[in-house]
């Protein structure tokens, strides 16, 4: 009887592990899935600026195009170190194929077939149009190489097991492209796309649950700074009710608030990117943000 029980336990364990392995298999985009396409490098630069690549990956604060990485991103799950995404073939992404880049951006899977941790905001990037991702790849091919491989992330067990990110993806990663709202204007849809896709604004401006997933009901409602100290503001109408769309567009260009204050912390890096966008794109973002209904965010410690 004991032997039968042990055998049953072993069988169930093997079956359970098989299900886990199958459910957490990293998704890939094959080269054959990419149709013929002539990239638009100028649009790729716009996606590069909207995506804020420089904010985390620039290894030289004075050079926007040198993407050697190295920045530490502390989190409740450990410290992530931003990788080298320059064209260096040994330390960066210089040897990546276009399909590997599309896979990373839209599936969160590395060329080695492993899950990326969601500190890389592929949850939002997955909403990007395939053409925009390919344009971004073409633009990044024009940027210089930076030498230096970045150290491994410093994450405790069990967060250091990449395979488990597959479980996280099942819970929090939809991986669906942006769909325009036919009831809204082209300008509103452009703003919605930039905010929810390349701009990945929700990644910082939303509270997260104990597993690191965005709290859907409080999307854009601000909360604790995911990088540690400070508080990320509410960008629904709960926080921006007194701002006009022109105020928001000007803030994205200059970093100046309607009260005459200036952006601080990591938002200064975001502003440096947003300032590179066209005035039309900044206004589109403003129009979309002004349309977000007021949502109460988490209560800020020490604030009434």
Low-confidence residue ranges: none
Biggest pleated-sheet summary: 2 strands, antiparallel
Estimate what percentage of residues fall within beta strands: under 5%
User: Number of helix segments?
Assistant: 13
Beta strand count: 4
Q: Overall mean pLDDT score?
A: 94
Helical content stands at 25-40%
Tertiary shape: globular
Order of helices and strands: HHHEEHHHHHHEEHHHH
- Reading side by side through the largest sheet, how are the strands ordered? 1-2
What structural class is derived from the secondary structure elements? mainly alpha
N-to-C CA distance: 64 Å
**CA-based gyration radius:** 21 Å
Task: Output the keywords.
304 residues; mainly alpha; two-stranded antiparallel sheet; two-stranded antiparallel ribbon; 13 helices; 40% helix; 4% strand
Q: What would you note in describing this structure?
A:
The chain contains 13 helices and 4 strands. The N and C termini lie far apart (64 Å). The strands form 2 sheets. A two-stranded antiparallel sheet has the order 1-2. Strands 3-4 form a two-stranded antiparallel sheet. The mean pLDDT is 94. It is mainly α and 304 residues long.
């Amino acid at each position: 009887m004991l032997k039968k029980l042990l055998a049953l336990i072993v069988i169930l364990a093997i079956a359970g592990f098989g299900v886990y392995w199958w459910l957490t298999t990293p998704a890939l985009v094959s080269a054959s899935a990419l149709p013929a396409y002539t990239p638009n490098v100028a649009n790729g630069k716009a996606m590069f600026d909207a995506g804020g690549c420089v904010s985390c990956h620039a290894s030289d604060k004075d050079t926007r195009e040198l993407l050697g990485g190295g920045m530490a991103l502390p989190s409740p799950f450990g410290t992530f170190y931003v990788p080298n995404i320059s064209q260096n073939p040994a330390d960066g992404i210089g040897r990546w194929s276009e399909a590997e880049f599309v896979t990373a951006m839209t599936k969160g899977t590395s060329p080695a077939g492993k899950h990326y941790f969601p500190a890389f905001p592929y949850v939002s990037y997955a909403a990007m149009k395939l053409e925009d991702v390919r344009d971004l790849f073409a633009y990044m091919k024009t940027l210089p190489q930076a030498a230096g491989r970045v150290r491994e992330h410093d994450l405790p067990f069990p967060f250091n097991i990449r395979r488990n990110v597959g479980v996280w993806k099942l819970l929090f990663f939809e991986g669906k492209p942006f769909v325009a709202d036919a009831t809204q204007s082209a300008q509103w849809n452009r703003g919605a796309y930039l905010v929810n896709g390349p701009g990945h604004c929700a990644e910082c401006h939303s509270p997260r649950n104990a597993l690191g997933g965005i709290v859907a009901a409080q999307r854009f409602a601000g909360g604790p700074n995911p990088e540690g100290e400070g508080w990320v503001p509410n960008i629904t109408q709960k926080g921006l009710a007194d701002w006009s769309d022109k105020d928001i567009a000007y803030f994205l260009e200059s970093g100046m608030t309607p009260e005459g204050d200036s952006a601080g912390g990591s938002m200064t890096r975001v502003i440096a990117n947003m300032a590179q966008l066209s005035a039309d794109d900044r206004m589109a973002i403003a129009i979309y943000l002004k349309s977000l209904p007021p949502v109460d965010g988490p209560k800020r410690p020490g604030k009434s």
